[in-house]
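GTPase Era, Hylemonella gracilis ATCC 19624. Tokens?
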Amino acid sequence: MIAIVGKPNVGKSTLLNALVGQKISITSRKAQTTRHRITGIRTVGPTQFVFADTPGFQTRHGNALNRSLNKTVQGAVGDVDLVLFVVEAGSFNQADEQVLKLLAQGVPVLLIANKLDTIKHRAELAPWLQEMQHRFERLGAKAEMVPLSAKNPKDVERLLGLCEKYLPEQDWWYSEDELTDRSEKFLASEIVREKLFRLTGDELPYTSTVVIDKFEEEPGKTASRFVKIAATIIVERDGHKAMVIGDKGERLKRIGMEARQELEKLMDAKVFLELWVKVRSGWADDEARVRSFGYE
Ligand SMILES: Nc1nc2c(ncn2[C@@H]2O[C@H](COP(=O)(O)OP(=O)(O)OP(=O)(O)O)[C@@H](O)[C@H]2O)c(=O)[nH]1
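Tokens:
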């Protein structure tokens, strides 16, 4: 069991998807895309890797949504064999420091210095890596430094080999072909949320969310599956609703189309997807609402 932790936007979900070999956690340029603990499974030969992706640890806003996200992170690092602590290569700031403080004593850590491809002069990274090593030593923590790019398949394969050394010998938890413990219904809401964030860019606040109202598989008349999904995009203000719908409904249509195509591939089914947009002001500050929208 391996937890993937780090501040928002360092590439945790990108790394998880690469490690698992299939997209199971959504990613975007927007920070705070991941909202839930997502388990990804990869079985290679005799070894089963169970990865837990976590939301980026929040340090700025203390609202109910962020408190819930941070609880998810804390829960994930407690009981694992190994932690992948993801940072951006060459950088370590206050937000990274906060994550470091969460790490349980005694659990081995790989410091993943991600986005190595963005560093022009690799030699310049050496003093930074040394400084990182010292930082861990001062805490009495064991850590191995692993500079890599989550977007480079060779780096990801090498990382799997490094992780393997830390895993105990025990029975597998999942069958060989399982990739995630999350349901298709959950993945559907995540994929709609990813398209929503990607197609609205920085204009839409991260407090928008997606709730699945209906997820029904039609009894098969033919060999292929047919799934009917209705989802509501929840936003904070009327202005955001207009932004999501777009000119003559163009943007909402595009969100629906891209999400449907990806879901059809993922579920190997014909998908009928219906999208609605609703305004619910202040939901991210309201504990009960945060829970009712599926956050722990
Ligand atoms: N250049 C480069 N970009 C990367 C790499 N890994 C991830 N990214 C980009 O970094 C951005 C954030 O990636 P995510 O995987 O969504 O990051 P995250 O840490 O899961 O983010 P949160 O959900 O906010 O916690 C995306 O635009 C990725 O494409 C990498 O190795 N190199």
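The mean pLDDT is 84.
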